[in-house]
Amino acid sequence: METGGAENRRNLCGRGPMIFVTVGTQLPFPRLVDFMARWASVKTERVVFQTGQAHGLVGFEAHGDLPIRRFEQTVDDARIIVSHAGIGTVLAAQFAGKPIIIVPRRAALAEHRNNHQCATAQALEGRAGLRVAWEVEDLPPLLASACEVPQHGTNPRCDSLVDRVRSFVSA
Amino acid sequence: MVYVLAVSSGGGHWQQLRLLSKAFDGAKVTYACSADVGDETVLQLPDCNLKTPFRLVRTLIGACQILWRVRPDVIVSTGAAPGVLVLILGKCVGCRTVWIDSVANVQRMSLSGRVARRFSDLWMTQWKPVALKTGATYAGAVL
């Protein structure tokens, strides 16, 4: 592992700003994890990884599958989330009021069964507090630039969905 | 009192299901999930997808046990495969059923959603273009 890994290790117990890299729990995503590990190895900022399936990240604070409460706590502690374009993480970031950068998985690289994450990313791009890195190389400038926090509070689209389901349930 | 069984897979499916919890106000709701969500009141269902026949059978057995135990009037699912199995079985024993396709499916209904169609009394997507293409109901989205 690069020597920078040791530098990163020194920050493990720090309370300062932190980046949470998560690829969900279902499928590995080495393109993103490897890129962020290389990036983190030359930075001093603390980076925590949830790699899903075992990825053997030596010298980093890496977890396979965080229990849901610890996952939420890690999202809370992060200044920004870097993630695959999974709805679970997008919702968690929105709920915690944290900015998120999503990297869609590609079927052509065997990262998912199909390209629905690209469609999701396309549909969500431009929302407050959310950036899309279409290539992992887009990540460093996005991480360096300021990102607003997502809109908090009630979402009228969600309220109308809930109302529709409620009226069906109670009918 | 209406008995609701709300069922989904883990991760984003589960988070979307929990965001709908207000829709069950006034009903007696039981949650079931095919992942461990760290809550012992949530019933657990073996995970599967529509391309793993052996695990599908295990999930089917788990679904029967849950239906027997909960005896729901209404089944609500946000996907994926385990949700559609519970929904189909529930429909066969007279439950009213709601399918809400994941907000991740921006351009088309998921495979599970397409399977669920015939068995859903309320068949929903969270994207208007998908509603226009498929005839599903659109009433909003969790995002």
From TrEMBL, chain A:
InterPro entries named in the record: Glyco_trans_28_C
Keywords: Transferase
Lineage: superkingdom: Bacteria
Molecular-function GO terms, alphabetical: hexosyltransferase activity
Keyword Transferase: yes
Statement: the UniProt record of this protein carries the keyword NAD: no
Domain annotation Glycosyl transferase family 28 C-terminal: ranges: 18-127
Name recorded for this polypeptide: UDP-N-acetylglucosamine transferase subunit ALG13
TrEMBL record, chain B:
Membrane topology designation: Single-pass membrane protein
Pfam family, one: Alg14
Species of the source: Litoreibacter albidus
Superkingdom of the organism of origin: Bacteria
Name of this protein: Oligosaccharide biosynthesis protein Alg14 like
GO MF terms, alphabetically ordered: N-acetylglucosaminyldiphosphodolichol N-acetylglucosaminyltransferase activity
Entry keywords, A to Z: Endoplasmic reticulum, Membrane, Transmembrane, Transmembrane helix
Classification via SUPFAM superfamilies: UDP-Glycosyltransferase/glycogen phosphorylase
Lineage: Bacteria, Pseudomonadati, Pseudomonadota, Alphaproteobacteria, Rhodobacterales
Principal location class: endoplasmic reticulum
BP GO annotations: dolichol-linked oligosaccharide biosynthetic process
Entry keyword annotation includes RNA-binding: no
Localization of this protein: Endoplasmic reticulum membrane
InterPro entries in alphabetical order: Oligosacch_biosynth_Alg14
